[in-house]
Specification:
Blueprint: H1 6-21, H2 23-26, H3 31-47, H4 56-71, H5 78-96, H6 107-140, H7 150-161, H8 165-189, H9 191-197, H10 202-209, H11 211-222
Amino acid sequence: MLNRYREVERCKEDIEQFIEIAQEDIADLEHNDIVSIVKGMMFIKKTYAFPEQKRQHYYECLVTDILNLVHTFSQNSIRVYYTTYRSLIENLVRVILRYENTNATGVRNMFNELREKFEASNKEFIDYIEGEYGKCCEVIHSNYKANLPIYEYYEEIIKVDELSIKKKSSMAKQLSSFYLKCKMFMVKNDYIQVNNAFHNQKEVLFFLIGKNPYNIFINNCDNL
């Protein structure tokens, strides 16, 4: 008899293998946060996998950002983390909007397009993701004490940029929350894409997104 849950077990194995490989990067993070983050990574990666060739570029950039963001936890740099996080957000929005490889829409217009398309159905998420993007920009473009002599300015940048264990933990929870909100947005607004990606793997989908998002997804699919 076919074991419908074998794919779930494989998914769990993939998560544990990823955690083992990435241990140097995530050693200071709580296990529950790590698992939540990896589930979010796997869900987004699979949902938008195998795009048309003309849309492949931004999907590949998104996957690279997803993986690189985990690696930044070992880089001891808040700026590196938020630079990568910002890039991830940009490429996720491009993928959600189905941008083709040659689309060079500016960030401001891109977010305007996202808002125009989805604000009526999910204003809370649009406000949230723009807020997260703004946090990234505040860190990246900070001119903290820029009037200091160059050596003192450099020292201040290094001091402010240090990534403590407490800060790592806070950022991991931030990232876990980001993926949870992305899951909810996608099952509400891109459920056809989710359904196509997990057509024969609903048990895996349930495992990756959890009960409440899954129930929302099923209700939306029932209305197709």
